[in-house]
Amino acid sequence: MKSSAFHALFVAVILLVPAAAAVAADTDDLLKDTPFEEILAKAKSGDAKAQLWLGKAYSFQKIGSKVHMDLKESFRWYLAAATNGIAEAQYRTGSTYYSEALSNFSRKPEDQAKRKQSANMALQWLMKAAFQGEIGACHELGRGFRDGKVFTKDEVEAYKWFHLAVEGKHQFAEYDRNALSAKLTPAKIEEAKERAVRFNKAREAARSK
Fold first, then answer.
1. Which domains does the chain have, with CATH numbers?
2. What pTM does this model have?
């Protein structure tokens, strides 16, 4: 993706961040004593926290739970919560699209349209989550631009996202940033840091509105 196109997408993502972004997503504490049927009803009525809870519940099997692992159902609820502005759900939705695009990396040519669509959706949702401060999304964007298997390879852009993830105290981001820095000139590293500063300023400006 060329820089001008990437900038246009970035601006579009910023404008699409919904007001619900400020909603806290600590669903385990909020819903731990709530009956499953009530959580499901809340989710169906549009409650974003309940939707995130269901996304998590269906993504793995809890002993004694009424919810059995169902990745399609998990994605359905993550996508619903993501659409309602929950950053963690946006991150998990983007990660799912990223994995889908990656799984089609070496497939036959007729699969490439689906792969491109998945890659675009991955980028959009991960960007939305990162814009809300979801450091996992920052780290995944860094990996995506570094590896060049789903997004167009851009090591300066990758460094930027790793740098932002380090600022957010991501567990593995510092290692990835340091490993990448050995491949970049000081000028490229400075450019990446400047991009990170501009990203943070854009976030601050959006929050102050």
1. 3-13+25-208 (1.25.40.10)
2. 0.83
